[in-house]
Amino acid sequence: MPYRRLPNTDSARIRALRTAVEKAADTDFQELPFSAGTLDESRNVLKHFEHLSSRYQQLYDAQVKAGKTFAGKIKKARMYVSHFIQVLYMCVIRSEIREEQLALYGLEKADMVVPDLSSNKQLLEWGQKIIRGERLRTAQGGVPIYNPSIAKVNVMVTLFREGYHTQELHQKATARVLQEVADYRKKVDKVIFEIWEEVEKHNRGLLPEKRLAGNREYGIVYYYRKGEIAE
């Protein structure tokens, strides 16, 4: 015997509800296989769940789009910060900058190695340290480093920081709506279950072939176990 299983994806949930609601709209009220209360609830739940799902998709698409732009900002900021630090080290090696001044940049214990810039958090922290350190050193009379200049580094780090915060906002908004979708799934599954229960109860007196066909018209999906033949 075939068995039914509730939808396990949001698109399948929407499809099951929409099928039942649309079929009910084409059916005489007296012939409805489930109650008017269930029909009203299913309409409301379908509308709200479609809205939530659409909202989540919009936010997710916006996050992905912003992420592609942000990736370019990460690459440039990392390149400029890394290059500046390497030039700074070369200046120390050539005795153009005193080694103890590396402390202004937070690099006194770095052993002349570029710090780990692989994460966004690390890149932001070191970018800010380098900018602050260069300004402190030049304020003390030091000759500014060029190629890249700290002004150019600052531009790249600022663009990265703005993109970083924007991406965080996108992620939080997307996660918030995704949680709303997840929480509402329980309500959706409950309504689908109620519809299917009432439809199957209404059609239980029909012959197997007609009963299954009639149930499927209201969105019930049946599965067959291995070796079974579909009716």
The strand order across the widest sheet is 1-2
Global outline: rod-shaped
Number of helices: 5
**Taking all residues together, what is the mean pLDDT?**
94
Give unreliable regions as ranges: none
Give a written overview of the molecule:
It is rod-shaped, with a radius of gyration of 31 Å. Helix 2 (36-93) packs parallel to helix 3. The chain has helices spanning 10-25, 36-93, 120-139, 150-202, 208-216; strands at 3-4, 222-223. 68% of the residues lie in helices and 2% in strands. By secondary structure, the chain is an all-alpha fold. It has a single domain, classed as Ferritin. It has a two-stranded antiparallel sheet. The model has no long low-confidence stretch (mean pLDDT 94). It contains 5 helices and 2 strands.
Task: Itemize the secondary structure elements and their pairings.
Layout: E1 3-4, H1 10-25, H2 36-93, H3 120-139, H4 150-202, H5 208-216, E2 222-223
Antiparallel strand pairs: 1-2
Provide a quick synopsis of the model.
The protein is an all-alpha fold. Helix content is 68%, strand content 2%. Helix 3 (120-139) packs antiparallel against helix 4.
Salient structural properties:
mainly alpha, Ferritin
